[in-house]
Write a structure and sequence with these properties.
This protein has 282 residues and is of the alpha/beta class. The chain folds into two domains: 136 residues, Rossmann fold, CATH 3.40.50; 106 residues, DNA polymerase, domain 1 (Orthogonal Bundle). It has nine helices and eight strands. The strands form two sheets. Strands 5-4-1-6-7-8 form a six-stranded parallel β-sheet, with helices on both faces. It has a two-stranded antiparallel sheet with strand order 2-3. Strand 4, helix 6 and strand 5 form a beta-alpha-beta unit. Helix 1 crosses helix 4 and helix 2 crosses helix 3. The protein is elongated and about 65 Å long.
Length: 282
C-alpha cells in the first residue's frame, strides 16, 4: 500500500489546506481558531540519551560495577550503556505493542541488562542462567530504584527546545504533552527540566490505558484540550507512534528528525532536524 502526502509544499501553516505563506496567529487570525500543539517528550524535548547516560554513569560508579565479573571479564561503562540501550529499545517496543506494562518493565529492566551483558561477553545469543547467579536480586532492585529516582530528575533538554517553546508560547499557541511515558516520571522530567509551565495539559499512556499510535489516546488528548484534529498539530520523534498515529485522525504533523531518518512512507506535514526550524513553519 502506498501512502500519499496530502499536504502541499509551502512552509507555513494556514487554514486553507496549508496553502498560505503567512504565519498563523492562533488567537487572532485564520478565523480566530486556536491552534493546539501536542508534543512528545522523550527524545523530542527531553534529552533521554544524555539524561539516561548521566544516570547510568552515576550508578556504575556508586555500585562499583567495574568490579563485577561476567565470563571472566569486567564490565566497562561502554558495555553497560550499550546493554541498557538495547534493553530499553526492546522493552519500549513491547510496551508500545501492549505486551508489557510499567510494572513489568521495572521488574525486568536491569535483569535484562545483565543478561544482555552476558550475551555480549559470551558471544552467544542465548543467556546462560548459571553464569548469572553472582548478581544478587537485591542489587538489581537497588539499581532499578536508583534509576527511577535519578533519571527523571536530570534537567537536559535537546538543543534549542527551550527557545522553541518560548517562541511558540509568545505566539499564543496552546501547548500540551502527549507521551507514552509513565505519569509520575514524565511530570518529574517536565518539572526538573524547567518546562512544566509551558504546557496546559499532560496526557500520558498511564491516564488512558492506551499508547500511541492507538487513536484512543489521541482522541482523549483532543477531548480534554477542547481541540479538534483540524486545529491540532502533533510533534514527535517517533514516525510510527507520533506521525502515523496523529495522521490517522487527520491531525497535522511535524516529524522531529534530528538524525535525518528516512521513513518508509513520507506522510508528515513537515520534517525538521533542529528546533530552530520551527519559526519557518509556525
Amino acid at each position: 500500500m502506498t501512502y500519499m502526502n496530502p499536504y502541499p509544499s509551502p512552509r507555513k501553516f494556514s487554514m486553507n489546506n496549508l496553502s498560505s505563506t503567512s504565519h498563523v496567529e492562533p488567537s487572532v487570525s485564520a478565523g480566530n481558531i486556536m491552534w493546539n500543539i501536542f508534543f512528545d517528550l522523550d527524545h523530542t524535548l527531553w534529552d533521554f540519551e544524555q539524561n539516561s547516560k548521566q544516570t547510568l554513569f552515576s550508578l556504575y560508579q556508586k555500585y562499583e560495577l567495574s568490579d563485577k565479573i561476567i565470563n571472566n571479564e569486567t564490565i566497562s561503562f561502554d558495555d553497560f550503556l550499550i546493554a541498557f540501550q538495547t534493553t530499553t529499545k526492546f522493552l519500549w517496543k513491547q510496551h508500545h505493542l501492549g505486551l508489557v506494562d510499567k510494572t513489568k518493565i521495572r521488574q525486568l529492566r536491569f535483569t535484562l541488562i545483565f543478561e544482555e551483558l552476558h550475551k555480549m561477553k559470551n558471544k552467544k545469543e542465548l543467556f546462560d542462567k548459571m553464569a548469572y547467579q553472582n548478581f544478587e536480586q537485591n542489587l538489581l532492585e537497588e539499581l532499578e530504584d536508583e534509576y527511577q529516582y535519578t533519571c527523571p530528575r536530570q534537567p537536559n533538554l535537546l538543543p534549542f527546545a527551550l527557545e522553541m517553546l518560548t517562541y511558540l508560547q509568545s505566539k499564543g499557541y496552546q501547548l500540551h504533552i502527549l507521551t507514552n511515558g509513565f505519569e509520575e516520571s514524565q511530570k518529574l522530567k517536565l518539572e526538573h527540566s524547567g518546562i512544566l509551565p509551558f504546557f496546559k495539559n499532560i496526557i500520558t499512556s498511564d491516564c488512558t490505558g492506551y499508547t500511541k499510535p492507538n487513536p484512543i489516546i489521541f482522541n482523549h488528548a483532543l477531548t480534554i484540550s477542547n481541540a479538534t484534529p483540524q486545529n491540532s498539530i502533533m510533534i514527535g520523534d517517533s514516525f510510527d507512534a507520533d506521525i502515523l498515529g496523529a495522521r490517522s485522525l487527520g491531525m497535522k504533523t511535524i516529524f522531529y528528525n534530528p538524525h535525518k531518518k528516512t521513513p518508509q512512507y513520507s506522510v508528515a506535514s513537515y520534517d525538521i532536524a533542529c528546533w530552530k526550524e520551527i519559526e519557518k513553519i509556525l
